[in-house]
Predict the 3D structure of the following.
Amino acid sequence: MAITPLPQSDAVPERPIKILLVEDERALREALADALTSEGFIITQAENGAAGLAAFRAAPPDLILLDLMLPEMGGIEVCRSIRSSSQVPIIMVTAKASETDRISGLDLGADDYVTKPFSSRELIARIRAVLRRAEAGANPVAVGSRLRIAEAEVDVEGQRVLRDGVAVHLKPKAFQLLAFLIENAGRVYSREQLLDKVWGYDYAGETRTVDVHMHALRQAVEAIPAEPVALQTVRGIGYVLRRPA
Ligand code: CA
């Protein structure tokens, strides 16, 4: 049987990736900058939080490596400040695994965490993984498009569901659940996976939460909510969104 290579339709033009490195320990910062530069990244260094924010505003990077323990303005504050205006990928650097547990629970919006000491190889792998995720999440569907889901039109960008041209009231989490399933149409997810993906891994809720939101979504989009054609239950597993080809 002939094996056809996958089409490279999502290939992006090669361009240097710019990384802002915010770290107050000079020796570590310079060692990281050297390691990343030799991998082809363009590095801007900042030695404290204020300098990091200034550098971020002056020339937005593709990714930020942000130390947690910085003098004066700490990494948490810097992360919050950046997140108020930007979804740029952020990897937080912590000195202890226990710090990582604590700050990842704060829901700062960091994309990943690395704990010192780490190898440059490990860090580069994390950087590439975060950049890939950011790239994939950037355009799940064409901007401004509306998708037909059963009886409804979903305006993904506007975060609205329209039924006969009228916006249906949905809680934000219900919309996020719908958007996630649209982005991953055809894939079956367990309730636990959906809690993890949509509510976040540190959400201490129950899987029944997913059922409640799914019920609301079916009411919003299905002709007969008890006999869904799009938002289907997979017995013993979870849910899947099926769209006509
Ligand atoms: Ca530090």
